[in-house]
Amino acid sequence: MATKRSSTDPIEAAILRNFRSRSFGWERGSDALWVAEEIARGIQALIERDPARAARLYGVLIGECMELIEDLDEDGEFTAFIESLYPSWIRARRLASRPAAETAAQFFKLRSVFFFDIAEVDAAAVAAACDEEHLEALAKAGAELLPGSAGLIRAVLRALNAPARYIAFVRSTGLKDSDYGVIAELLEAAGEPAEALKWTTEGMDSEGMDFSPAGLDAIHRRLLKTLGRGEEALASAWVRFRSCMTVDGWRELMDYAPAEDRADWHERAMDAAGMADLDEALEIWMAGGEQSRIIGRIAESSDGDLEAQSHYVTEPVAKALEEDHPALAARVYRALGVRILKSGKSQYYREALHHLDSCRTCYLRAAMAREWEALAREIQRAHSRKHSFMPAFETVVKGRWIRI
């Protein structure tokens, strides 16, 4: 005669108590999410020392969350939370030595109960949680549930480093633009660069040039270099840089430039960057150590142009100019501070004060006290109603601002 458990698992009891009571209500999704995340952290702590218990509890939590989600109005974050549980659930079952085929079957069963699209799952994260046996089991079980599981099977076959199977699968279900790069990388890893190049060529012909940093054209250039076609790779990198001027594009161009010609290619790239938008040009010139070009571009830019730039671009520029070109640095710091004030984002007022204090220091070092005084008066006039800002700004004006 089977013996009953003396007590319910306390974590399972907490799940059932919170979720079956339906105490959250449709408008309280954030409360439900907070409780679910707390419970999940408790389960996560069990994975290494008691994976069987963790696996069972993850299954209970996922099931209850999926029932609750139908009652919630705003379910986007809650859905993402549920998706984040699957990799941990799989890992726990794997550590508990549960059969891989059983795990795969339960995975698809859990996801199908409430008609969730398998494609919504973070396929890469699920695949990363698997060993080869579990990947094979997911591929087999998913193949019976097409087309909903196509995205997951792609991730599984990619994780298995199985180019031939990946190609066969996508040919049977329909090639996507993203498949060309995946296949090329799988073939490259398998030591077949020539075959991989065929796929990048076909993909670029079919979908047009992809200029993203990790795009198909970047893989194509890498393969060209591997196959001894460095001049073609360099020419392609130059086309890419001219079409989309970024720091990454410049660095890639330098990687393909022969050592003896690198200085010439650097100069060509820096010249070309002069035709780019202000933010792109400044970023490229900062990376390339082209201070004289930066000085010229800042000098010819209006205050409005400088204010329009992200602080990620202009703050490093201001710091680089402080020592030898304080007057220009002051203009950039002015733009950084005024940009925040005009946006009205009070949470960034402390940063604005830092920038304006640096602006004051640079103006005084450049013997431009009148310019600073004029700016201070303009800020006092235009932003007098910003009561959370003005008292602290007066300490900047008096040179008493203390940075914390």
Explain what this protein looks like in three dimensions.
The chain is mostly helical and 404 residues long. The protein has a domain at 306-404. Helix content is 71%, strand content 0%. The chain has 23 helices and no strands. It has helices at residues 10-20, 29-44, 51-68, 76-95, 100-112, 123-128, 132-143, 150-159, 163-173, 177-189, 193-207, 216-226, 230-243, 247-256, 262-273, 278-287, 291-300, 303-307, 311-321, 326-343, 349-365, 369-382, 390-397. The longest helix is centred in the N-terminal third of the chain and has 20 residues, at 76-95. It is flat, with a radius of gyration of 29 Å. Mean pLDDT is 88; it is low at 1-6, 114-119 and 209-213.
Compose a concise summary of this entry.
This protein is an all-alpha fold and 404 residues long. It is built from 23 helices and no strands. It has a domain at 306-404.
